[in-house]
Amino acid sequence: MINQLVLVLDFGGQYKELIARSVRNHSVYSEIKSGAISADEIERLSPIGIILTGGPNSVYAKDAIGIDPRIFELGIPVLGICYGMQLLCHTLNGAVEGAKKSEYGVTETFLETDDKLFKGLKPVIAALMSHTDKVTKLPKGFAGTARTANTEYAACSDGERKLYGIQFHPEVELTKGGDDIIKNFLYEICAAKGDYNIDDYVERQIKSIRERVGQKRVILALSGGVDSSVCAAVLSRAIGKRLTCVFVDHGCMRLGEGDEIERVFSAMDLNFIRVNAEDRFLKLLSGVTEPEKKRKIIGNEFIKVFEDEAQKLGDIEFLAQGTIYPDIIESGGEHAATIKSHHNVGGLPKEMKFKLIEPLSGLFKNEVREIGARLGLKRFLVSRQPFPGPGLAIRVMGEVTKPKLDVLRLADDIVCSEIKKAKLKQKVSQFFAVYTDVKTVGVMGDMRSYDNLIAVRAVTTSDFMTCDYTPLPHGLLKKIASRIVNEVKGVNRVAYDITSKPPGTVEWE
What we know:
The chain has 509 residues and is of the alpha/beta class. Helices cover 32% and strands 24% of the residues. The protein has 14 helices and 18 strands. The protein has helices at 16-25, 39-45, 83-91, 178-189, 198-213, 226-239, 257-266, 278-285, 291-313, 325-330, 365-374, 379-383, 402-422, 474-487, and strands spanning 5-10, 29-34, 49-52, 78-81, 95-111, 124-137, 143-147, 155-158, 163-166, 218-221, 243-249, 271-276, 318-320, 355-357, 430-444, 447-460, 468-469, 491-496. A 9-stranded mixed sheet has the order 2-1-3-4-9-8-7-5-6, sandwiched between helices. The longest helix has 23 residues, at 291-313. The chain is globular. Mean pLDDT is 90; it is low at 333-347.
């Protein structure tokens, strides 16, 4: 390793990438490995620290995910988070039991601030808890370092062996001071030098792509979104004209978006191909209502289109995608539940002719934007809000049809234009309309109507792993609703989604 390394060991927690991102944000390189990794392999990797993630199981269950106990004898600092703390204590002969009262959500937490992990923090913080089990007996050599009204050991430490556990989640924005806790672990406990930056990541990827591809050619699945645009910039830097960008218009794009993408990328120094494939995608989606099935159909058909284009171009072995970390975690992993299959991860066919190249798969959205800016992409490409690969197909509830898509395109355009025009002071990370496939009774022109309900979604987030709904001004919502019901035929009602993530997701499907 060129840089110091911190290992994040995965036990199925939904926030493992947030932990890795937090570490990298403090200029320390991080990698995620399976919780089943051996102590011998860890010694080979020689990390300066190890972080154990949360997870959905109970450590005392028969099928619980365990850990090689020798890891705690290596002398490498360890931080266990949530399930990670319970696993640490359970493995070292402490006790973990089901709690009489579960703790979910932001909880008042009292810290022992003389502990290195909590150096510089306030003695009382708001911390995100998410657990039904708790540590009831600490292992020998440990001391309690935090508590809540319901949990005696909300954190613990053995400073001599540099073993630390916290029951709450410092990696999420909802925990106040959580980022300082991770920083303290890195610099106060692991003695990090801070020798990693995003330029290192880009240069490594470029070198890796050149070594892997050689003189062969690559096609890139270009959607025109932030991720695929930045992916195109990285690949172009690595292999130049041996890259061909293929934009597949599957008929589920936003209003005028296909033409805009063609105009922008055709003007760049890139090989660009647009494939109009609306008919073949909508035919396959006919009669399909289940969200996971939609995603998988779209993912499979994308690959078939790329295979067709690769055959026209000649012998092309590699397919590049703008896959990023949140795509992977939500599509499930070795220990994680599948939240939703992203078309470019869980939606891919099991067998395909291409070898994948995914240079952004270790990054979060904010890091991808930073790389795009450094590589000279235009600001509107780097800063545009995310748009899912399946497009409006997962913003149309129920069966996807062209008439529904046409209604949604118009409604979505009104939502986007009015929010942009409002120039809100609060940050709005993503906003769009949803065709709910629900009809409601209304009165239009003194006549009874029975038309469609459109939902509006706007969220604020920095990582898209969690988010809060954005409290848009009522005057703005009123204007959006008025325009939609007056200008979009077939709509008589508009609702606003005020659900955060969790328990919801950003998209409805």
